[in-house]
Design a protein that fits this description.
The complex is a heterodimer of chains A (339) and B (335).
Chain A: H1 7-22, H2 36-41, H3 52-61, H4 64-81, H5 83-86, H6 118-153, H7 155-170, H8 173-192, H9 194-208, H10 212-226, H11 229-236, H12 241-249, H13 254-277, H14 289-296, H15 304-332
Helix pairs in contact in A: 3-15, 4-6, 4-15, 6-7, 6-9, 6-10, 6-13, 6-14, 8-9, 10-13, 13-14, 13-15, 14-15
Chain B: H1 2-29, H2 44-53, H3 60-84, H4 104-139, H5 144-158, H6 161-175, H7 192-229, H8 232-239, H9 244-282, H10 287-296, H11 300-328
Helix pairs in contact in B: 1-11, 4-5, 4-7, 4-9, 5-7, 6-7, 6-9, 7-9, 9-10, 9-11, 10-11
The chains are: A mainly alpha (339), B mainly alpha (335).
């Protein structure tokens, strides 16, 4: 958290907060409607342009660490997506005469033991690592949200679903992940090709073992929401259950879901690189950051940079994602917002 | 409280049974064959005999029940025999590793000291670092110490242990040559020289794991201290004229430690999981390394037993954490 120097803005926020709680209509605390005090303090904003997400963004911008992290994360994403179009050397091109080169103009970050360009490999590896992180997070968050909403909304499903969540929480996750990956890597690789097969396997294994926190948080929020008047109002005009969940419940639990999703990317990237590091991830000629680190371990005494570079990328990505998650959590929490 | 504890223990039993079934079925569904390394020249009927000798002849549910019996009945009996010199378990088949042909529990017993020494000690060091840092950062909220602490702990749990471990090896073992990069398990501590050698080889793995754990625990400690520092009883204590030292270190610290203690208990089994990676980095041949080698060589009984032991640790420590919370905080009522 950073201290806010603009006292005028701060007092306006305080007034707006109390005004919002006083006028707590449907979803009052989460959706502070445009009110005169804030508009007076910031005359360039018309009432129509005020929305929850704009408020969240404004709060988010004041979290200095999160803003720096956002810029850095965007830079990393640009590096792995746009980078290969600018630096066009193929990441798998073997040039045995140029192996084990240090930093030079032809290879800015050197080459590996087969003469493959490290810069290109880091870009390619980053694509895979980020793709694994995003997809695994999507699976985990979708599973967690569905299970959380179902168990919070239907009283009959609550006990069995929560028992299941507790069971999953009691599983030894890393050993099980290792087990799943070793046991099913070859058959899936034969069915879908080594790269895609491993991707599907790792992503679904990570997704299937990391949805529990999201489910618990969502369930807690849904249980609270269910008692609110706007749910009663929606029910009284005969809203069917499905629309109830998608129109009224889901938008109101979006903020904890987004925080869980951001932090989920970080854990998924770490888990993938840990698997790769143990030699149980992607196949050898398929670069990911974890795999690059693992491949370089054998020669780390001679060429330490080859270990450090992918490690720095993993840590930096995870660090920025964690900071963004932290900033989002502060920005979305109406109790903290405006402090 | 007692009924709550009993109910939780009763609930833990089906949970554990279910988990063991999940692990067993996962291994059962696996396409890997423990006889995959047997040469093709071996005739099929001999292969069938070998399969039966490994206990793979029967249907899966029979083998599952048999394994449960071995785990929960024959192995404990065997320990009783060893302790008291009786022979209840004579003739009963223990769980045998495919890989080494020796009882699984004997191998595990050989590996446990290494894991406990390195992992247990590092967790202790981590907690001892984390608690003072948490207290100071909360007491001086938003000071430079707090900002720095927040940043370092953020970095601390964003850097995976396999990366910090490797960086430590490059810096301290390769460049500075202060510590050995490989953990030597055969080393016996007999005199000061070998003790010093043991300290040197433990320094890096312990530091890596301790920093990682301290990063997380210090955050919890800080949050918990902040919660308590704003409470009314703190103002009362100050109004009574107690010294600042007594207020913070006695009144606030005691109450703040309650949730932290449970977090520490909950984190213990996860430490064993995280140690799999650290053990691999520094080549400590503990439980994690045993699990990985067993997975690679398709040693089903070993993998099954080890994974199940990890599951038992998680369930037991969750139980301990919940009960501890109730004991430490009398406001918590479970009925």
């Amino acid at each position: 958290m950073t201290e806010n120097p603009h006292d005028a803005l701060r007092s306006a926020e305080l007034i707006r907060d109390s005004a919002a709680t006083a006028a707590a209509g449907p979803g009052g605390a989460l959706l502070p409607a445009g009110d005169p005090a804030a508009v007076a303090a910031a005359p360039n904003l018309t009432p129509a342009s005020r929305s929850q997400w704009r408020d969240v963004w404004r709060q988010f911008r004041r979290h200095r660490g999160a803003m720096v992290a956002l810029v850095l994360f965007a830079a990393i994403v640009l590096f792995v997506t746009v980078g290969p179009y600018i630096w066009t050397i193929d990441a798998t091109f073997v040039d045995i005469r140029a192996r084990n080169k240090g930093f030079s103009a032809a290879h800015p970050l050197g080459t590996d033991q087969l003469g493959r360009d490290m810069l290109a490999r880091l870009m390619k590896g980053g694509q895979v690592s980020l793709a694994v992180g995003l997809t695994a997070m999507l699976i985990a968050v979708t599973l967690g949200t569905v299970i959380g909403i179902l168990s919070g909304f239907f009283r009959r499903l609550d006990a069995p679903l929560m028992r299941m969540t507790e069971l999953f929480l009691a599983l030894p996750l890393l050993p099980l992940l290792l087990l799943m990956v070793t046991l099913f890597r070859e058959p899936l690789g034969q069915a879908m090709g080594p790269g895609l097969g491993t991707f599907v396997l790792i992503v679904s294994a990570i997704g299937a073992t990391s949805w529990m926190q999201a489910a618990r948080i969502v369930r807690g929020d849904v249980l609270g929401l269910k008692e609110r008047e706007f749910i009663l109002a929606a029910r009284s005009i005969g809203t069917p259950n499905l629309r109830m969940m998608t129109r009224h419940i889901l938008p109101n639990v979006l903020s904890p879901i987004m925080v869980a999703a951001t932090l989920g990317i970080a854990t998924a990237i770490i888990t993938e690189s840990a698997l790769s590091f143990l030699g149980l991830g992607f196949p050898p000629d398929f670069p990911t950051w974890g795999r690059l680190l693992y491949d370089a371990i054998e020669q780390m005494q001679m060429y330490p940079w080859r270990v450090i570079l992918p490690g720095v990328f993993i840590s930096l990505t995870v660090l920025t994602v964690n900071y963004i998650g932290d900033g989002l959590r502060d920005a979305m929490d109406p109790r903290i917002r405006g402090r | 409280m007692l009924t709550y504890a009993l109910r939780r223990i009763m609930l833990a039993i089906p949970t554990l049974l279910f988990i063991s079934l999940v692990i067993f079925l996962l291994l059962e569904l696996s396409p890997g064959d423990p006889l995959g390394d047997v040469p093709l020249t071996v005739p099929p009927e001999v292969k069938e005999k070998m399969r039966e000798a490994l206990g793979l002849g029967q249907a899966w549910y029979i083998r599952y029940v048999l394994w449960l019996k071995q785990f929960f009945w024959i192995e404990p009996l065997h320990w009783v025999d060893q302790l008291l010199g009786t022979d209840f378990s004579r003739g009963a088949q223990r769980i045998i590793s495919f890989q080494s042909r020796s009882p699984v529990f004997d191998v595990i017993a050989e590996r446990i000291p290494q894991t406990l020494k390195v992992v247990g000690f590092s967790y202790l060091v981590g907690v001892l670092i984390a608690i003072p840092i948490g207290i100071i950062s909360a007491y001086k909220q938003y000071s430079w110490f707090d900002q720095l602490g927040t940043f370092i702990s953020m970095v601390g749990f964003s850097m995976p242990t396999f990366f910090t471990g490797v960086v430590f090896i490059i810096v301290f073992a390769v460049n500075l040559q202060w510590f050995p990069s490989i953990y030597d398990t055969t080393l016996k501590v007999t005199d000061w020289a070998s003790f010093w050698q043991q300290v040197r080889q433990m320094a890096m793995p312990v530091t890596v794991l301790a920093l990682y754990n301290a990063a997380q625990i210090s955050r919890f400690m800080r949050a918990s201290m902040l919660d308590n520092l704003g409470q009314d009883y703190v103002r009362t204590a100050r109004a009574k004229g107690l010294s600042e030292r007594t207020v913070v270190l006695k009144h606030v610290l005691r109450n703040s430690l309650i949730p932290v203690v449970t977090v520490i208990a909950l984190g213990l089994p996860a430490v064993f999981g995280g140690a799999i990676i650290t053990e691999q980095v520094f080549k400590v041949n503990g439980l994690g390394q045993l699990l990985i080698s067993a997975i690679h060589s398709n040693d089903i009984p070993m993998v099954l037993t080890l994974t199940f032991i990890f599951a038992i640790l998680i369930v037991v420590f969750t139980l301990i954490a919940d009960i501890l919370y109730g004991i430490l905080d009398p406001r918590i009522r479970y009925d």
